[in-house]
Design brief:
- InterPro entries: FliN-like_C, FliN_T3SS_HrcQb, SpoA-like_sf.
- Helix content is 11%, strand content 29%.
- The chain is mainly β.
- The protein has one domain (23-96): SpoA-like (Surface presentation of antigens (SPOA), Roll), CATH 2.30.330.
- Strands 1-5-4-3-2 form a 5-stranded antiparallel sheet, with no helix packed on it.
- β3 and β4 (64-73) form a beta hairpin.
Length: 97
Amino acid sequence: MTELPDGDARPDSHNPFSAVPIEIVVSVGKARPLVRDLMRLGENAVLGLDRRVEDPVELYVGDKLVARGELEELEGDVPGQLAVRLTEIANLRDELG
């Protein structure tokens, strides 16, 4: 992964694929409970993850890691809405070539 460059990335207006929406999954951590423990979980149960609150999150498109970032609260009309500030982006050209 490489650091994000300073400045804004602008979509290529001549490429028809630039307007196609994609789904990005943000992974905050993983849990590996035993099935019996998972079956005992109920409302208000707490499932511990393998990460801490201040650890970076990972952004995936499909199964490809595309970036890492930090969770933060989005400023605006909806209090508590989460956002991700990107800190690293993957060099996808290396993976495709």
